[in-house]
Amino acid sequence: MSKPDVAALSMDPALLARARQSFLAEVGTEAQAELATRFDRHAPRLLHWLSKLYGRQPMFERWLLSLCTTLGTLARARPPVLCELDRERERDPDWFIHEKRVGYCAYVDRFGGDLNGVAERVDYLENLGVGYLHLLPFLQARTGDSDGGFAVASFEAIEPALGNMSDLEQLATRLRKARISLCADLVLNHVADEHPWAVAAMQGDQHYRSYFHLFSDRRVPNRYEQTVAQIFPQTAPGNFTYNDALRSWVWTTFYPYQWDLNYAYPPVFASIAFALLKLANRGVEIFRLDSAPFLWKRLGTPCTNLPEVHHILSALRAIVGMVAPGVLLKAEAIVASTDLLPYLGVGETLGSECHLAYHSGLMAASWTALGEGRTTLLRQLLDSTPTLPAHTGWMTYVRCHDDIVWGVLRSDVEAAGDDFTQRIGNAAAFLEGRRPGSFGHGVAFQSTDGNAVHGTNGMAATLVGLDSADNADALRRFALMYGLAFAVGTVPLLYMGDELAQPSNDAHDDAGLMALDGRWAQRPRLDLARLQQRFDGNTIAGKAYAAIKALIAARNDASFDPCATVETLDCHNEALLAIRRGERFTVVFNFSDKPQPVDWTGLHAGDGWTTLLQTADDAAIDAGILPAWAMVWRKKP
Ligand code: GLC
Question: pLDDT tens digits for 18-42?
């Protein structure tokens, strides 16, 4: 697919020329040619989107030129080793696709204590086969409750208990040596009420008041509330919080202490872009753009996924292209599948938005399939997943630090002609141990009134009922869920503790946190006893670890083509899901509790094909039977 014609972008050529001068001012002759080339390649898009967003604002030109001057300064400050990485990745923009990297996601304190402790675990990650480490928020958070660090009090400092900026740089360097890219959250939708911008706003500074959405009375908020959904309807109802110092209602999509930023005010965009680039210059290679869908508000709309959100992300992408082209952007957009693809760039933002996006619909549909024992929704979702734009990929996952957000499936379930609450409510209840035959022990999130279906919490092992080493069924369910993510994804993501089948958190020292927010169920500390057991095949940890290692090895086989499109095959059996990826790779999954016959010849994976990985005995497979919850990966040598 080609990128949109730069000539078709609307911008003032004279302004572009002045912006170029500002960007290149004071760049030494050595870097000049390279930066000029990058500017010419990406700045037309940057100006196009910024003119669209802010072009009518007074002082737009002055603001834009000063933005470009600072971008030039940040480009000059980029360390040589990162500049070298930029060049490599500019030459090979598909590096993160064909390198078959596997991701790993963890909280710094729960995984290693602090940043230096994480550095000590790099060998562990390397041996596991990880090539991408997402550390959940580690910047300075507000005091007290901070939504697990997602209430950022400073973009310039590390949370003191976790270390300092020099620890971060050292960790990034250590990881890079191990060919592991460091991914960090960029919480760009909101800041903590303790952030200096919020503090200045409370002190009456008009400039910083403009950083937020403030309303003197409830009239406008009430109108917004008619169309805007609630993220935490039980623990943080509503989207606005009254603040005495501001003498206003402030927009707070998430918790009352997380204040949404007002991207209609250009300095907000600039501040966030600079925060991103400064962290990139410290060695962060991938940014998880937290809560990306919420960046723009308009009355009468859900205030998510609005076109301006995509303009902002495209402008950020252009900035990354100009200053730190080795960096990747990953969208955290937990939205309906129909709204998801635009985050990877389609239409006017084709190929110029995020590089990666979480496939949240696939994750929720795979849990639905396990809860229902049939794969219809999963297949429907895979079939309706559009082809990826060039140089982009899906991040697939089984669990993360958040709940399974069921709402992402609403439109798919309704398209199938089913009632969302009834169908997904049943699947969720099954995974939560509330149906006959349930094996899962998940916990409902924000939906304890029994009728609403919101989210489900729990670690993967708990949701699949894996609580003893001799539970072969549960072990197969565990491998099945990760098997799907590994077979379908561009970059599959392991969630810390899953490789050791850690169960949900019920630690007493986390009781306070769990009472505040049920999502702490899936945020346990790394279990050091299990870590020791990982090579012992008689333990649950050992069995889970071996299952994950086998999946990583199978993905590394030459038959697995990460660039190939995934398509489903017809099994004529709702219990099964068969996928093909390229010409030489096919997998069949049995999501039901009964053995199912598989016709390999009918799936064109019979003669001449061999088994790459299986989670069942040879005898069954040879007899053409796929046992309950088993999967078989086949390849054409
Ligand atoms: C993202 C995070 C979630 C957090 C929210 C607000 O969705 O994954 O944990 O609560 O953003 O920052």
Answer: 999 999 997 877 789 999 999 999 9
3-state secondary structure of 637: coil
Does the beta carbon of 254 sit less than 6 angstroms from any atom of ligand 1? yes
Enumerate the active-site residues.
Answer: 290, 332
**Ligand 1 proximity of 335 Cβ (cutoff 6 Å):** no
Residue 4 CA neighbour count, 13 Å, CB half: 18
Ligand 1 centroid to Cα of residue 365, in Å, is: 20
Residue 439 token pair: 């094996």
Return the amino acid letter for 572: H
Structure tokens, 326? 């080795």
CA–CA separation, 29 and 44 (whole Å): 23
Residue type, 159: E
Average pLDDT value for residue range 337-349: 88
Token pair listed for 447: 């939906």
**Ligand 1 center to 47 CA (angstroms):** 30
Query: What residue's CA is closest to ligand 1, atom 11?
Result: 291
The domains located in the chain, with CATH, are: 100-191+266-555 (3.20.20.80), 566-635 (2.60.40.1180)
The token pair that represents 216 in the structure block: 């003197």
Which candidate, 16, 45, 26, places its Cα nearest to that of 349? 45
Ligand 1 atom closest to residue 150's alpha carbon, by position in its atom list: 12
- Using DSSP, state whether 596 is helix, strand or coil: strand
CA 581 from centre of chain: 23
Asked if residue 485 has its Cβ within 6 Å of ligand 1, the reply is: no
Report whether pLDDT(347) > 90: no
Are residues 185 and 148 in contact, defined by beta-carbon separation less than 8 angstroms?
no
Q: Could you report the per-residue pLDDT of 589-619, keeping only the tens digit for each? A: 999 999 999 999 999 999 999 999 999 999 9
Q: Are 399 and 354 in contact (CB under 8 A)?
A: no
The answer, yes or no, to whether any atom of ligand 1 lies below 6 A from the CB of 107, is no
Q: Which residues 6+ apart lie within 8 Å of 623 measured at CB? A: none
Q: What is the pLDDT of residues 48-99, one digit of tens each?
A: 999 999 999 989 999 999 999 999 999 999 999 999 999 999 999 999 999 9
Nearest protein CA to atom 2 of ligand 1, as residue: 290
Q: How far is the CA of 608 from the centre of ligand 1 (A)?
A: 47
570: Cα separation from own chain's centroid: 30
Q: What tokens does 179 get?
A: 């060919």
Q: Evaluate: CB of 291 within 6 angstroms of ligand 1.
A: yes
What DSSP line would sit under 137-177, residue for residue?
A: --B-B-SS--TTTTSBS-SSSB-GGG--HHHHHHHHHHHHH
Q: What Cα–Cα distance (Å) separates residue 521 from each residue in 230, 358, 461, 529?
A: 21, 21, 12, 19
How many angstroms does the Cα of residue 327 sit away from the middle of ligand 1? 22
User: How far apart (Å, rounded) are the C-alpha atoms in residues 376 and 343?
Assistant: 26
Ligand 1 lined by 150 (C-beta under 6 Å): yes
Task: Compute, in angstroms, the gap from residue 317 CA to the centroid of ligand 1.
Answer: 21
Contact 294, 306 (CB under 8 A): no
Cβ–ligand 1 contact at 290 (below 6 Å): yes
Q: Tokens 């098997």 appear where? A: 483
CB 219 within 8 A of CB 249: no
